[in-house]
Amino acid sequence: MDVSQGxxxxxxxxxxxxxxGSFRVVAGPCTIESYDQFVASATAVKQAGFEYxxxxxxxxxxxxxxxxxxGEEGLKIMSEVCGDLGLKGVTEVMDPYDIEMVMExxxxxxxxxxxxxxxxxxxxxxxxxxxxxxxxxxxxxxxATVEEWLLAAEYVTAAGGDNVVLCERGIRTxxxxxxxTLDLSAVIVAKRLTDLPVxxxxxxxxxxxxxxxxxxxxxVAAEADGLIVESHHDPQEALCDAxxxxxxxxxxxxxxxxxxxxxxMGREVI
Length: 270
Ligand code: PEP
Ligand code: MN
What we know:
Layout: E1 22-28, H1 35-47, E2 52-54, H2 72-85, E3 88-92, H3 99-105, E4 108-111, H4 119-129, E5 135-139, H5 146-158, E6 164-168, H6 184-193, E7 198-200, H7 202-206, H8 212-221, E8 226-230, H9 248-264, E9 268-269
Parallel strand pairs: 1-2, 1-8, 1-9, 2-3, 3-4, 4-5, 5-6, 6-7, 7-8
Helix pairs in contact: 1-2, 2-3, 4-5, 8-9
The chain binds phosphoenolpyruvate (PEP) and manganese (II) ion.
């Protein structure tokens, strides 16, 4: 695909994650911390009316001294809880050696912002999901242009993995009142240049929970196909990204809060 010419791919759905006429919400904790924490947070996601739960087992932490995630133990917690609750799991893979293991336990594989330009990982993930029901959420790099982001997606699709969902998660700017700057114009631009679905992560963009719901509403209006938001059953105690996690009460109001905006865009929040 020559993105400068706006040539579209022919990929339109993501095996159930993204459906025409719908606005998909993925919610859940930044990190899988324990069975009890994940089952409580995932139960809230289910009760809020959503079908996809996020949770990291391998965490790309800025500091090597921060909690790095539970690894395989976390993945096992995710698949057990998803199986029990009838949810689908979204989790990040950082290392090509872990791709198979992650696919055993999760439906959707996230490639994080810090790995958007890890081309060998992109190729390996694309080849691994080819011909399977698995999909990929590809975060935009912290300083990647839209063209670089779309070309990163091409690495996955060219390797055979056509179920790619792009995710705008904020870029680095001079602004300090938010963790990153949510670039909603990039959502619209990406949707003009490709048929790949585009979702928004307002949690990492804002870095503060009070902005997450307004930015979610703005994302609906900006033609996004969905959201991935962080939520926690006890945000004060979250081991990672506590300041941006939505509490359960806010999660419960999310679907009804977004639906008027989605209705205006001809979509149903799912
Ligand atoms: C995450 O989703 O937990 C995460 C680390 O996201 P990003 O790669 O966008 O920073
Ligand atoms: Mn996080």
